[in-house]
Amino acid sequence: MGSRKKEAALQVNISTQELWEEMLSSKGLTVVDVYQGWCGPCKPAVSLFQKLRLEVGPDLLHFALAEADSLDVLNKYRGRCEPTFLFYAGGELVAVVRGANAPLLQKTILDQLEAEKQVLAEGGERKAIKDEALSDEDGCLSRGKDGRADEDVVSSEKTCTLAIIKPDAVVHGKADEIMVKIQEAGFDILTSEERTMTEAEMRLFYQHRAGEEAFEKLVRHMCSGPSHLLILTRTEGAEDVVTAWRDFMGPCDPHVARREQPESLRAQYGTEMPCNAVHGSRDREDANKELALLFPNFRFTDTETPQGGEAEGEVGTPKVLPSREDVA
Questions:
Q1: Domain 160-294, CATH number (from 3.40.50.720, 3.40.50.2000, 3.30.70.141, 3.30.70.890)
Q2: Calpha distance 296→204 (Å, rounded)
Q3: Active site residues
Q4: Where in this protein does the record put region Disordered (predicted)?
Q5: If 257 and its partner were Cys, which of 66, 141, 267, 325 is the partner (CB 3.0–4.6 Å)?
């Protein structure tokens, strides 16, 4: 309850044109998180905003939330799955950042805040911009003939995978830290959701392990508390996002991870099986199945066989699928 109050105090919710005009008239720099109703605001950015607010103070740095569907002025941002941050100073748009890229967000905030301080002190001109990147090609939603999104669709042009920050990492307060590391490693978090899994979901999710001795323990663990469910894509490098995420997690067993890949997430945040901090899909096909199960409101367009038309077992670099023990 306390954290919700903090978020509300940190980011003003702009839900009407009147509030939008009021935001434009604010002195200093305002960073607006423009979000879609179906995925909500960008949660990974909140900890960064709190840090910067503490460092620079509230006088000239403001944060706001605005749902694209609730304001006509944001109609061009509707149906876009990646987070969008608009920077306003003196009523003018001065910068845009797309994606939950914490280092880029921090740099842009500090640079624009310094520029606005200079304008206020010396009376210079602001460098207003237009968001030229807006086009129908940027959206991740499919659209009907009337131009409106008829379903929540993540385009196959952006390969996606599922990431789960498991209850053991969440209960130890490591979720935000892990999400920052994910972003710093070149992944984009398209959406993030915190919830506690049901037993029925997890039995279906891990049905390929139903005959194993550890199955019941795994299901109980995954239902023991809140998890963070993330849809990841990747903008840096040519490596398939599914393969890149599995490499970044490290070996399934945290003890093995600490020995073989000490910088991996499971080496840093896992303790012992099944408490290995994070989950990743085994391949592109499994990623689509898992995403469809845990994000039923999304329809993932995928007319391909696994990545690039390759046969099963040939996704990314490894041509041998991980064993069942490696997909917990």
A1: 3.30.70.141
A2: 14
A3: 279
A4: 300-328
A5: 267
* pLDDT number for residue 80: 72
Give per-residue pLDDT as tens, 37-82: 877 888 878 888 999 999 988 899 999 999 988 998 888 888 776 7
End-to-end Cα spacing for the chain: 32
Distance CA 291, CA 163 (A): 9
**Residues 6+ away with beta carbon under 8 Å from 256:** none
Strand partners, 244: none
Select the CATH number that applies to the domain covering 12-122 from these four: 3.40.640.10, 2.60.40.10, 3.10.310.10, 3.40.30.10. 3.40.30.10
* Cβ atoms of 323 and 253 closer than 8 Å: no
Pairwise CA distance, residues 328 & 168, whole Å: 13
Rounded Cα distance between 133 and 141, Å, is 16
Residue 322 has pLDDT above 50, yes or no: no
Give the integer Cα–Cα distance in Å for 16 and 21: 9
Backbone angles phi, psi at 268, to 5 degrees: -80, -35
* C-alpha–C-alpha distance, residues 168 and 239, integer Å: 29
Q: Which tokens hold the place of 293?
A: 């199960």
What is the pTM assigned to this prediction? Answer: 0.53
Query: For the ranges 20-29, 253-262, 289-298, 311-320, which has the lowest average pLDDT?
Result: 311-320
Kindly state the tokens that stand for 34. 């423009």
Rg of the chain in Å (alpha carbons): 21
Same fold, 12-122 and 160-294: no
